[in-house]
Automatic annotation (TrEMBL):
<feature type="transmembrane region" description="Helical">
    <location>
        <begin position="21"/>
        <end position="47"/>
    </location>
</feature>
<protein>
    <submittedName>
        <fullName>MFS family permease</fullName>
    </submittedName>
</protein>
<keyword id="KW-0472">Membrane</keyword>
<dbReference type="InterPro" id="IPR020846">
    <property type="entry name" value="MFS_dom"/>
</dbReference>
<dbReference type="Pfam" id="PF00083">
    <property type="entry name" value="Sugar_tr"/>
</dbReference>
<feature type="transmembrane region" description="Helical">
    <location>
        <begin position="501"/>
        <end position="519"/>
    </location>
</feature>
<feature type="transmembrane region" description="Helical">
    <location>
        <begin position="525"/>
        <end position="543"/>
    </location>
</feature>
<feature type="transmembrane region" description="Helical">
    <location>
        <begin position="247"/>
        <end position="270"/>
    </location>
</feature>
<feature type="domain" description="Major facilitator superfamily (MFS) profile">
    <location>
        <begin position="21"/>
        <end position="547"/>
    </location>
</feature>
<keyword id="KW-0813">Transport</keyword>
<feature type="transmembrane region" description="Helical">
    <location>
        <begin position="315"/>
        <end position="331"/>
    </location>
</feature>
<feature type="transmembrane region" description="Helical">
    <location>
        <begin position="456"/>
        <end position="480"/>
    </location>
</feature>
<keyword id="KW-0812">Transmembrane</keyword>
<feature type="transmembrane region" description="Helical">
    <location>
        <begin position="158"/>
        <end position="180"/>
    </location>
</feature>
<feature type="transmembrane region" description="Helical">
    <location>
        <begin position="59"/>
        <end position="80"/>
    </location>
</feature>
<feature type="transmembrane region" description="Helical">
    <location>
        <begin position="192"/>
        <end position="213"/>
    </location>
</feature>
<feature type="transmembrane region" description="Helical">
    <location>
        <begin position="282"/>
        <end position="303"/>
    </location>
</feature>
Amino acid sequence: MATVATTSPSSTPLGTGHKRVIIASSVGTVFEWYDFYLYGSLAAIIAKQFFSGLNPTSAFIFALLAFAAGFAVRPFGAIIFGRLGDMIGRKYTFLITIVIMGLSTFLVGVLPTYESIGVAAPILLIALRLLQGLALGGEYGGAATYVAEHAPPGKRGFYTSFIQITATFGLFLSLIVILACRKMLGADFDTWGWRIPFVISALLLAISVYIRLQLNESPLFQQMKAEGRHSKAPLTESFARWDNGKVVLLALLGATAGQAVVWYCGQFYALFYLTQVLKIEAVTANLLIAGALLIATPFFVVFGGLSDRIGRKPIVMLGCLLAVLTYFPLFKALTHYGNPAIEAAAKSAPVVVVADPDKCAFQFDPIGKKTFTNACDIIKSALAKGGVPYTNEATPGTDAASVKVGSTTIPSFNGAGLEPAAFKAQSEAFTGQLKAALKTAGYPDKADPAQINQGMLLLILTILVIYVTMVYGPIAAWLVELFPTRIRYTSMSLPYHIGNGWFGGFLPTTAFAIVAATGDIYSGLWYPVIVAAMTFVIGTLFLRETKDVDISK
């Protein structure tokens, strides 16, 4: 096979030509991740703007589902754009993806709200989220493949780790813009100012397209196409042939699924946990997450470079194992240092829902038409709205339900068949008694800034993000090296985006739904812990190390 010329001498740690490739690929990807993360960071505001027809618990969960909808279609974007990337080239494919992403994000910023156009607003929002997801599904595989195919042997982990930084930088950039807008606009940010970060994406789109247009095609792809070796049917070769399909499946279950839940738990779920469970003010929570990202981000490159020496597999597997072993104590520590009043109240005056489990509905109404009127549902709806942790005490065979706050018992009521006015009056009376009992027991409406230990929170969040850097820093090089050049874009994109789009993207929604159903504020962690444990076992036993493979074949 002919030797492919690199853009700069590989004897230097990072040659000028290689820097240009990395910077051009990374800057465009930063802007795309910025676009995608805006929605996740503003989920609580978007819930009020586009899902105001639902009850508060359902509105927030449905806003998270709309966020997850973008992740749900990412594997389809991987298939569509991965096929194009393997047939026509890496460069032109991720030019298309960035245009789709930027335009979709801009349109979110000018979209009318539920109050203006009714149910059409959330429908259009979800449609734009789907377009964002399709675009992102084609972006990552292209950028990672493009950089890896420019990298000299023995440097692929280091080179591709700069692509891994882009996701964190994108989130960091979105947080900076959000915080700046909040600071300047104050209360107006929640009503109309939230649109500004989305509208700004038009400028970022123009910069990104200009940068991407300066790139040349991957040298490995150019040579392969000149020799007539590029794939004419990348989907068939990637997924319909067991020798490659088996590797795709193992890459999903033994690498990207665990990597995804560690990533999304350490960044997104941690942010939601601070704001929605611990009730820490949004600006403070965002600053803490931003600080942790700033401290931990260099470790993407540290672990990417380390993987060139000791291998991709041991670093990713260790990150998954640490998450499994420490997530519960770390999140309990977040509670202890973030809102100790919740912890103290839960110990001194635990809240217990006493009811027949069969009479308790799941507190989620995706279309806003269901009315929670039985005694158990009224209790759990009030507790979920207030973010109050509770346990359940089963009393089978009875329609009655009550809630115990320490030694105080408050009976609920059955609202079925009541006139709206009567239901409202009884509901307000019950809620008033419950709030009074919770206040007496020490349950806070929001975190007391004087009791927040910001230093310890920053340390814990930094540990969580360092786990992210361990699993994410080496993953691009590992995936690139698992598959042959002719079908690399397609083959690596699908397991990456199923892992990150489905296992990771649905993590906040799934975790909060589990918390809402059980009342245990830590129960949502079982989802990332179980998935990370699965990846650790499968990856350790069945996936091969790849750091020394020749990717030119």
